[in-house]
Amino acid sequence: MELIFRHDAYCRSCEATVVAAEAGGIRLDRTVFYPMGGGQPGDVGVLRWPGGQTPIVDTHKGEGRDEVVHVPAEGAALPEPGATVEAEIDWERRHRLMRMHTCMHLLCSIVTGDVTGGAVGDGKGRLDFNLPDTSLDKEHITAELNRLIDEDHEVRPRWITDEELAGNPQLVRTMSVKPPMGAGKVRLLEIEDVDLQPCGGTHVRRTGEIGPVRIGKIENKGRQNRRVNILFAD
Ligand SMILES: [Zn+2]
Predict the structure, then answer these.
(1) With 0-12 CB in 10 A as exposed, 13-18 as middle and 19+ as buried, what is 80?
(2) Which of 26, 123, 189, 203 could link 70 by a cystine bridge, Cβ 3.0 to 4.6 Å?
(3) Does this model's pTM top 0.85?
(4) Is 18 within 8 Å of 83 (Cβ atoms)?
């Protein structure tokens, strides 16, 4: 299966052939739909073909490597296996997710401490840090985030081999999500002069595209766990 979002996160639609279609999920030979993973929710959108369409309400990974399952709305018509469909994501929503996801990388570079969890939502995001310090300053983090956004750093994927990553374990900031090794190479996300870490998600091209943000609540979730919430400021 060709995962178009891996090399082009800005691709909103593609033509694809239906491999299998059941009420529980539709599989295509290629897709622009990002499956839930790495703290980023799965895409929603629509599959269209002459004479019909299927609203897609969620996307998740299948059992095979690089397998993506498009979840149809309950009771929706299904395309025939072998049919050609146009697969189109809800771009407005995806772009908000890309902006917030990229902002989480910036947050990682500002707050020290290992990341133990996190989630990107529509218009908001949060990261949990393993950090005994309870004095995280909301105003300071907000100012630093917006500075990095205003500086408009370039954001780009970079691939390295498993061996290179094994030799540079400090690249891994996230303890809860180990980078997928074993495929020979690992996808890193680089924000020029700011951050470099393994990530398979979708991101904007430059930090300026994130737009202004602010830190919401900073919660103490246990002795060593600080949960930092981010919101779009506009
Ligand atoms: Zn990422």
Answers:
(1) exposed
(2) 26
(3) yes
(4) yes
